[in-house]
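Q: Can I see a sequence and its folded structure?
A: Here is a first one.
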Amino acid sequence: MEARNAIALLLALVVAASFLCDGVHSRHHHHTKRHSVRPPSHAPGPSGPRRAPSPRHSSPSAPPPARTPPSAPPMPGAPAPAPSDDGDNVYDVIKDFGAVGDGVTDDTDAIKTAWDTACQDDGEGVVLAAAGHSFLVHTTTFTGPCQGSVTLQIDGTIVAPSEPTTWPANSKRNWLVFYKADGMALRGSGLIDGKGQKWWDLPCKPHKGGSTHGPCDSPVALRFFMSNNVTVQGLRVQDSPEFHFRFDSCRGVHVDSLSISSPALSPNTDGIHVENTQDVLITNTVVSNGDDCVSIGAGTLNVHIENVTCGPGHGIRFASGAWGSRGRGRAWPTSRCGTR
């Protein structure tokens, strides 16, 4: 009896142990199955771009450029911002400063403001009067010294007012003046037109029978005063009311590849006049006018003139005292003078 009870107890224990083991295996299999079918926590979207993670040792990719909000237009009368072209400090008088360029509208303020803005830049600034436009400019002074160097690039046309009566009474001796504009350049492929005809026809002019001693002021087209290391290159300049160029109290002047013209009977229209100026180089230039091709005044030292064609006109004239009180300095004129 006892043996039968022991066998029954043993069988019960075996059955219980088998049931426990089957339960454990069953629960383990169920957990693995749930884990294998769980969806990923970061499923990709339908079509949106994703940034791939960078390798640990590679350089990080540059972030996309930030969008720059459009800038507000400049207030009237305020300097316009410089163009956004990287590395180019170009001040376009039409695009950036509101010049019209139709030859009728007064663009003096636009060009003067462009100069003043470029002059405050400590780099190399270019004031651009673009080709295909004509800019009416009244008498004005471009003043330095500038923080950097400024180039006035004339590829269009600059025209003076044609009526002498429209000029201010106290500003009839100069049109465009560059004062203390060290290191500047005036260049381009354009034209500077002084509109001198009505000035030449004033009754006070000697060839019109007027008094040679009375007041008869007429403007010099381009005057450089107390400006050092100046370059003028490539331009056509015509019909100045009086001298086309005048350099006073300057040092280091280079004039190259100009075409200067006015009628043969236009009075006192010297092509280039230098006075109290040192170290002047005039090259590759053609002057056709009604007075001196090049006139060299008192206090001028070290002038080199090479490959300059004069005529009609009076040739190259050396004023008394042109080389200083002791005759210091030298000139090397190599030019052709005569009728063309």
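Q: Show me another, different protein.
A: A second, unrelated one:
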Amino acid sequence: MDSEIKEEVPVHEEFILCCGVETQVLKCGPWTNLFNEPRANKPKLLIFIITDSKAQKINDIYGLQGQVEHKLAFLRTHVPKETKLVVIGHSIGCHINLEILKLAPELPIIRSFLLFPTIERMSESPNGRIATPLLCWLRYALYAFAYLLLKPWPEKIKSFMIRIGLRMMNLQNEFSVLNVLEPFCLANAAYLGGQEMMQVVKRDNETIRTYLPKLTFYYGTIDAWCPTAYYEDIKKEFPEGDIRLCEKKIPHAFILRFPQEMADMVADWLKDDLSKI
């Protein structure tokens, strides 16, 4: 069993055009194309992960609704209709997760995980009170700062600054994060963040109630984006739901220090569903 867990999973990276936008796709597993793969090699289940991250062009692709439509277009265009889906959302990805369920009931989603879910009152959260004025009212000042200061920097300086930052936070540079200092990326992130503060206000109880048996919520105890009061409110509204509170003090940005712990938990929650496929 131990050897199976430690077995290395092949990862393929692709860039595709989806809704007219270059889209990075990471495929984990011994397959490259779901449509052309022989039936014997096709996966029975696809796990679709939406991070804190197109058959036709979408207006406002970098806005919140555009991101929802982008993920829907990817699933409808690049995934065979018969492939069962598990959707995992983190942070604002949980809002997108619920929107996918609401807008595409035809998709064969068997389970949906919402990790540290920012699905309500974002601007009222402790972090939201700080982020809202920055992203909504001072956004253009951030744009000017990014373009005037960071645009002239050579790649070597950007890479050096990122390495210093990661070292100060005691993090390993296991993935390429150079684009975090690209003004275009920073501007798009600020634009999307501003929309999140303004639009993610009321929890979508109707969609949650409709799909409650498929949903698992996981709230943090030290999360300044969705404080424990939000957990208590949704727990009262849906006492029969699978709504969990972290007991390990895992932070909202778990990918930086606790990726393995979260992966192990989600894999454990999925065991029963996988055994039925």
